[in-house]
Amino acid sequence: MNDNHIDLLVYNIGTLLTLQGTNQARKGQEMSELGAISGGAIAIQDERIFAIGQEADVRAQIQGMKIVQSLDAREQLVTPGLVDPHTHLVHGGSREHELSLKLKGATYMEILAQGGGILSTVRATRAASEQDLYDKARRSLDVMLQYGVTTAEAKSGYGLTLEDELKQLRVTQKLHHEHPVDLVSTFMGAHMVPEEYKGRSEAYIQLIINEMLPAVKKLGLAEFCDVFCEHGVFAVDESERILTAAKALGFGLKIHADEIEPMGGAALAGKLGCISAEHLLAASDEGLKAMQQAGVIAVCLPATSFNLRLKKHARARTMIDMELPVALSTDYNPGSSPTESIQLVMTLACLNLGMTPEEVLTAVTINAAHAIGKADEIGSLEVGKLADIVIYNANNLAYLPYHFGINHVNTVIKRGKIVVSDGIKV
Ligand code: NIG
Ligand code: FE
């Protein structure tokens, strides 16, 4: 670290949004404070930020040090690497046949009740080889990286047998080591009761608690455990038993809560001290209050409500006004949200959730990093943190959600290395 050199100097930055500030997940007005610097520069040594600030100050700090490589940011916008805190990255197959069903008026839960939906992806995932799953997920990760994502969470939950869940989790682990995007792994055996346990959900819950959770823990294949708490999937008391067992083994907790029906999932997230609760379209005021008091982060997924053609949206404005920290994510999966584009999510968060561009950036950087327990390393640009940086083909933040449906990323730096240049993975 004390070597007298700078590996990469990013200079001539038009607007540098550092997200420096509090160590906690941001809430209320804090979500609009981006730590902006105009005319900035960032000096990187090894994989971390060595100096950051006004260009003249940074150059003064590194005076006399050898600069190995310099990169002109062309007076454009620079932000921390984006963080996607909720994806179902590893899965087999796709579900484009559901589009025509949806257009005829079938709902997500109706398609699922007929054995389609998640269950059809379970069949495809079980049938896929580990290599097939790896290749497909790697292509998705390439897209995510090119759209500015430098860290993502990835859930299992399309295997639903011990072996098939481990298969998905091993793919995540391998990609974490081999792909520039860092992955945080979540075990989600409680995504659905598999067909062979139809009518015997208690036996499946016992399998999760007694066999799957201990095996995943022993192999070190996941940091978090997530449950789909929804009518017809896992009830609140079932979710509580699974998450309590996971907590006892040392997993961090996440929950798909109150997506379609107001079930009390948000309140359960507060009760159990989950790190985050996801979806929340139907969450009650009391549920959101319980989350706020317990410090649970609300992860809103506006691409999912868009794609499911739901009339309702997560109440992000209410959440921000009541000082509940909000993060945003793609929920990338083959059913409810078949998109890797965090930039589309940023637009939908503005237009459908009423969030400002400033709140949106906070929600896909520092708050998303908090939602996966990684805010000490990523999510803001500060001395000592990882040099995960995005340079855009835009010189101001509002331009990103405004000009929608395209990729604004020019350059991505991951752990100090240029991994996307001119919008293409190098
Ligand atoms: O977060 N809601 C449950 N799970 C995913 C959808 C999975 C699927 O449809 O394959 C979600 O929306
Ligand atoms: Fe999800």
What is this entry, summarized?
The chain has 426 residues and is α/β, with parallel strands linked by helices.
The CATH architecture of the largest domain is: Alpha-Beta Barrel
Total DSSP E strands: 19
Query: Strand share of the residues?
Result: 15-25%
**What distance separates the N and C termini?**
26 Å
CATH topology-level fold name of the largest domain:
TIM Barrel
Number of helical segments with 4 or more residues:
16
Low-confidence stretches: none
CATH H-level superfamily of the largest domain: Metal-dependent hydrolases
> Could you tell me which ligands this complex binds, including any ions or cofactors?
N-(iminomethyl)-L-glutamic acid, fe (iii) ion
What is the structural class?
alpha/beta
**What is the share of helical residues?**
25-40%
Oligomer: single chain
CATH class of the largest domain: Alpha Beta
Question: How does this structure look, described?
Answer:
The mean pLDDT is 97. Helix 5 crosses helix 6 (162-178) and helix 7 packs parallel to helix 8. This protein is α/β, with parallel strands linked by helices and 426 residues long. Strand 18 (417-421) and strand 19 (424-425) form a beta hairpin. The chain folds into 2 domains: 5-81 and 379-425, Urease, subunit C, domain 1; 83-371, Metal-dependent hydrolases (TIM Barrel, Alpha-Beta Barrel). Strands 2, 3, 4, 6, 7, 16, 17, 18 and 19 form a 9-stranded mixed β-sheet that branches. The relative contact order is 0.16. The chain has helices at residues 55-61, 97-103, 108-113, 118-127, 130-146, 162-178, 201-219, 236-248, 265-272, 285-294, 302-307, 316-321, 342-353, 357-363, 366-371, 399-402, and strands at 5-6, 8-17, 36-45, 48-54, 66-67, 70-72, 77-80, 82-84, 149-155, 182-190, 224-229, 252-257, 276-279, 297-300, 326-328, 389-392, 409-414, 417-421, 424-425. Bound molecules: N-(iminomethyl)-L-glutamic acid (NIG) and fe (iii) ion. Residues 88, 117-118, 121, 228, 256, 259, 304, 331, 333-336 line the site of N-(iminomethyl)-L-glutamic acid (NIG).
